[in-house]
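Tokens as discussed.
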């Protein structure tokens, strides 16, 4: 595998652990609010790290790092991701995976074979508005539903998270999401922020009061829902 970014140390990406973060290139979604757009489009010309580079780095950081985060892009897009995960696990590292949930079969293998220890799945919007929100017309949400159901059935620590964008999310969306994911133990609403690497212009953040209002809606069905990164 090739990687198109390496954050050597993070205290934020893996809950409770000092970790590094690896960034894969490519994604099957085109979310207009994507904050890593160069990892979605045109990443082939970016600085890259080979699999050997990464494994050598991880070998040297044993005893210092407590975990490895793998994000993107969409990591499960890559045919060799499972083989790479096995190599990271063989080095003794816990692994956190970020995914959009569209590669259910690969996610299931990764969890079943204990190749990941924590999964963060993005819930882009209500199922009704997925195509609009991810920039893919006529998107079939069945794999998203299966991935969410699988995570909620147990087997791995996980969280759901939604980046809230004023132009894309409304009260009715969070009513629907709450009914869909009722009882989930970890759900975070994240405030949209312009990273300077956004796929489309014209996106904006909701206010703190609006975020709190959406949170109250969610908590009717997901009492453990919380805000993250809200100013």
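Sequence:
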């Amino acid at each position: 595998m090739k990687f198109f970014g390496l954050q050597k140390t993070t205290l934020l990406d893996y809950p409770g652990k000092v970790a590094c973060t690896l960034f894969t290139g490519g994604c099957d979604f085109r979310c207009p609010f994507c904050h890593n757009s160069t990892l979605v489009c045109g990443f082939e010309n970016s600085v890259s790290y080979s699999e050997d580079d990464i494994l050598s780095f991880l070998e040297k950081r044993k005893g210092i790092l407590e975990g490895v985060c793998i994000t993107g892009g969409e990591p499960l897009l890559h045919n060799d991701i499972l083989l790479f995960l096995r190599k990271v696990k063989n080095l003794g590292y816990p692994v956190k995976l970020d995914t959009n949930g569209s590669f259910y079969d690969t996610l299931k293998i990764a969890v079943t074979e204990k190749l990941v220890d924590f999964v963060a799945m993005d819930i882009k919007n209500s199922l009704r508005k997925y195509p609009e929100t991810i920039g893919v017309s006529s998107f079939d949400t069945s794999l998203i539903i299966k991935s969410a159901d699988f995570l909620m059935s147990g087997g791995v620590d996980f969280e759901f998270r939604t980046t809230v964008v004023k132009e894309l999310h409304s009260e009715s969306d969070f009513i629907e999401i709450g009914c869909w994911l009722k009882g989930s133990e970890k759900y975070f609403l994240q405030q949209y922020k312009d990273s300077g690497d956004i796929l489309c212009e014209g996106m904006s953040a909701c206010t703190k009061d609006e975020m709190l209002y959406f949170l109250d809606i969610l908590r009717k069905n997901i009492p453990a829902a919380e805000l993250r990164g809200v100013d």
